Structure formats: structure tokens, C-alpha cells
């Protein structure tokens, strides 16, 4: 709570300074609107932009779900077939060094303007932290417990389900929290490349019309979505870890 209060106080101070600088320097609204103007647009124009919220939320949820599946599958494959690690892992790293904004137009050419290219964009952005975190969790399994289970005659499946997988759970959720916040960014980028609705589309329309206050409104919602996803994953982590400890 103390950390949140410090953050809140800092945010208020920044907003006050921002508001004061805009008013004193008389900055045009189409260059940098004051926070008061942005918040007024946030509440007054809700009925106008609310149609863009649901498509983005749906895209984020679907994209994050696909990212979890891909991330877990890649981690399991590299764990079970360890000889593939040196062959595949470099490609995973390379995939994170290619700008998604460059790949996105190619995905539209290959797969059209439907849902698939958008999900691919989000998955490319989000699956890597899940895979890497899980692999790290597998590798940090307690070696003494591992030797003990082998001495007791436990099978590879039993060792994995009773020891390696539970041990990797904290690492998995750490990666998932990163992927969850990235998923919103990935959804916005995917909406930039071609979409009829969504916050990404709303941002482009507002930017072209020089309605900078609406661009900031979209940014506020992006932050809200990212925080909500983070908090949901955090609550889920506490629930799962409490259950596993019991």
C-alpha cells in the first residue's frame, strides 16, 4: 500500500506540472493537450469510443491464450527432447530481434486481414518469456530431490509431474506476467495493420484527425488493460501456488 501511495503522489505531481506547463506555455491542444482535457475526453466521449474496447479485449484474451499454448509447448518439447535445445533455442532468440511492426504487413499479405495474422503478431510478442521462464524453472529443479526420486524408482513422467512441473510454476507465472502486459501492445500493433475496430484503429483515426487527446485516451485504456491482466495473473498465481503448497 505504501508503494502505491508513493506512486499515486508522484503521478499527481507529474500531472500538475504537465497541466501547469501546458497552460503557462499555451501549448496547442493538437500538439500536447492538458491532462484536464484528456480526462474530459475520457469520460465525455465514452459512448463514442466504447465500441473499440471489446474487440481489443477479445483479441488480447485470444492472443494471450495462443501465446500460453505455444510457450508451454515449446518449453515442453525442448525439455523432453533436450538434444533439440541447441538447434531451436537460437531461433527463439532471433524471433525476438525481428521488429514485429515489420513482419505485420507480411502477415497480412500471407494470411489476409482476418483474425489469424493478429493472433500471430501477439503470439510472436508474448510466447518467448513464457518459454524461457519455464525452461529456467525446469533447469533449477532441486538436484538432491531429483536424485532421491530416481533412487526410489520414479519414472520420468512421475519426476516431471511431481517435481519439475511444480518447481517451474513460479517461473511460469513470472513469464506469464510479462507476456500478459506485452499482449496488449501486441494487440494494438496487430490492429494497426488492418482492423475495423479496436483501440489501435481508434488511435490511428484520432492521430490522422490531429485529435491528440483521443490518442491519450486510448493510451490510458491500454495501461488499464495491461494492469488488469497483470493483477489477474498475480491473483491466479497466488491461488495456484497456495493450492500446490497445500
- CATH structural fold name: MetI-like fold
Shape: globular
Kindly provide the name of the CATH class: Mainly Alpha
User: Which structural class best describes the helix and strand composition?
Assistant: mainly alpha
Query: Could you give me the name of the CATH homologous superfamily?
Result: MetI-like
> Kindly, what is the distance between the CA atoms of the first and last residues, rounded to a whole number of angstroms?
27 Å
Largest sheet data? none
The averaged pLDDT comes out at: 86
Would you identify the CATH architecture? Orthogonal Bundle
Strand content: under 5%
Number of helices: 11
Parts with pLDDT < 50 across at least 5 consecutive residues? none
Radius of gyration, in Å, reads 22 Å
Percent helix among the residues? over 70%
Give the count of structural domains: 1
Number of strands: 0
**Could you give the order of the helices and strands?**
HHHHHHHHHHH
Q: How would you summarize this macromolecular structure in one to three sentences?
A:
The chain has 246 residues and is mainly α. It is built from eleven helices and no strands. The radius of gyration is 22 Å and the shape is globular.
Describe the secondary structure blueprint for this structure.
Blueprint: H1 2-25, H2 35-44, H3 46-49, H4 53-80, H5 85-95, H6 100-111, H7 115-139, H8 143-151, H9 156-192, H10 199-208, H11 212-245
What attributes characterize this protein structure?
246 residues; mainly alpha; MetI-like fold; 0% strand
Amino acid at each position: 500500500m505504501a508503494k502505491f501511495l508513493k506512486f499515486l503522489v508522484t503521478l499527481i505531481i507529474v500531472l500538475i506540472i504537465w497541466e501547469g506547463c501546458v497552460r503557462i506555455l499555451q501549448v496547442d491542444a493538437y500538439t500536447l493537450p492538458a491532462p484536464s482535457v484528456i480526462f474530459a475526453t475520457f469520460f465525455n466521449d465514452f459512448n463514442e469510443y466504447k465500441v473499440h474496447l471489446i474487440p481489443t479485449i477479445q483479441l488480447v484474451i485470444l492472443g494471450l491464450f495462443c501465446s500460453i499454448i505455444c510457450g508451454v509447448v515449446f518449453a515442453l518439447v525442448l525439455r523432453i527432447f533436450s538434444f533439440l535445445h541447441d538447434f531451436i533455442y537460437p531461433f527463439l532468440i532471433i524471433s525476438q530481434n525481428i521488429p514485429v511492426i515489420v513482419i505485420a504487413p507480411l502477415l497480412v499479405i500471407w494470411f489476409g486481414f482476418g483474425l489469424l495474422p493478429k493472433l500471430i503478431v501477439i503470439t510472436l510478442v508474448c510466447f518467448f518469456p513464457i518459454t524461457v521462464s519455464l525452461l529456467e524453472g525446469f533447469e533449477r529443479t532441486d538436484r538432491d530431490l531429483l536424485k532421491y526420486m530416481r533412487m526410489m524408482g520414479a519414472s520420468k513422467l512421475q519426476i516431471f509431474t511431481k517435481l519439475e512441473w511444480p518447481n517451474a510454476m513460479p517461473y511460469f507465472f513470472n513469464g506469464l506476467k510479462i507476456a500478459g502486459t506485452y499482449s496488449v501492445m501486441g494487440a494494438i500493433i496487430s490492429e494497426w495493420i488492418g482492423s475495423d475496430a479496436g483501440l489501435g484503429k481508434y488511435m490511428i483515426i484520432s492521430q490522422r484527425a490531429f485529435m491528440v487527446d483521443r490518442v491519450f485516451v486510448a493510451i490510458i485504456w491500454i495501461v488499464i488493460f495491461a494492469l488488469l491482466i497483470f493483477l489477474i495473473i498475480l491473483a491466479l498465481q497466488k491461488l495456484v501456488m497456495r493450492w500446490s503448497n497445500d
